Amino acid sequence: MQVSKQLHKLGTETAFAVSAQATRWAEKGHKVYPFHLGDINLATPENIVDATLKAIRDGYTGYCPANGILPLREALAHDVGSKRSVVYEPSQVSIQPGGKPTIGKFISAIMNPGDEVLYPNPGYPIYESQIEYQGGNAIPYGYVETQDGFDIDLDRLKSSITDKTVALIYNNYQNPITAESSIAEMEAIAEIAIENDLWVLADDAYYEMIYEGDARSIVSIPGMKERTIILYTFSKKFAMTGWRVGGAIGPEKIMNIISKLNVNAESCTTHFIQYAMVEALQGDSSGTDTILATLKERRDAAVAGLNAINGIQIPTPRSTFYLFPNVNEIMKHKGFNRVEQLQVGALENANISFCTREHFGRPSSDETDYFIRFAYSGITTDDINEGMVKLKEYFEFS
Questions:
Q1: Which residues lie across from 139 on neighbouring strands?
Q2: What is the mean pLDDT of each run of 10 residues along the chain (398 residues)?
Q3: In this structure, which topology does domain 62-282 adopt according to CATH?
Q4: What residues does 119 pair with on adjacent strands?
Q5: Beta carbons within 10 angstroms of residue 302's beta carbon
Q6: Which residues contact 73 (CB under 8 A, 6 or more apart)?
Q7: N or C: where does the chain have the smaller number of CB atoms within 10 Å of the terminal CB?
Q8: What is the distance between the alpha carbons of residues 312 and 325, in angstroms, rounded to a whole number?
């Protein structure tokens, strides 16, 4: 019996492969320091848990509207809009079972086979996977490493646009590289989208994972709200990665399409969890403040640990929970020519598990630098400090 010919175009979230590798190593009796997966080993705030249990006891365990319950759509429209200085109506919100479904449904809503979609690379691997699986051409744009982090390669982005380009995926506060756009860069992206009449998916998964200052959104730039769909997830801010609830926010005509896709895919997002999300957005925020403070402490420990290693120097990012150091000098010192050798070596010699640049989209042929990614959301500060000592010893000595 045959299977779909399209399946070879479907990728995966390759960080889970590293997770499996780390699990196998741990099963052999090793203590693994898990820097590989962007999961969060912190408890969901208690008021959200209590609201969930109450909603179950109140009987919200059946079907609900495909686009989500009205109280949550009202709360999310207000929360997202007020934090971005724009106004959204509940009709411009479609509740999703996580943040990830918005990617595939956005592509289904705006792209025809053969169309081109621009996406960040390195970037979240599901962009590339969904574009190609649905018959589109995934066109990558990259970044330039600077003293302060990474800037989008705007020249390459502009030169990649053709008459077949229909959309641009934009992930500010970026996974894996923590890139944050300056105001000028964000305005340049907006200008490109407007001039070329492109839809934009603003992946705002880490919009509120900001340790200093305020977040900025491309939808606040005139001309962008009407062409932008925001990917929202509760997973990060509220430490709810396994709860699977998020939302798409944008023009009503696209939300209607996405909600129709909801009917075909999952009928609706879990009913009782949606009531709990109203509490998450409108209730006591002390639990989320604690989550952010803990992640900031971990960030500072991880940055200090990496910068103590000869051959590594990274700035302190003010967002996400990732670090993306250049390891050219380490690779040269080790005599490696594939970054996978460094990744496996660190696991087997120092019990440190991390991802590499290759786990976040296909590298372009002109890439010559080596990068690895550390996630500090699923490891305690004590283990970060302990692990970094072991990593330093492995990286610095032959």
A1: 118
A2: 83 78 90 92 96 98 97 98 97 97 97 97 95 96 93 96 98 95 97 98 96 95 98 96 96 97 95 97 95 97 97 95 96 93 94 93 88 96 97 89
A3: Aspartate Aminotransferase; domain 2 (3.40.640)
A4: 140
A5: 25
A6: 67, 90, 91, 93, 95
A7: N
A8: 7
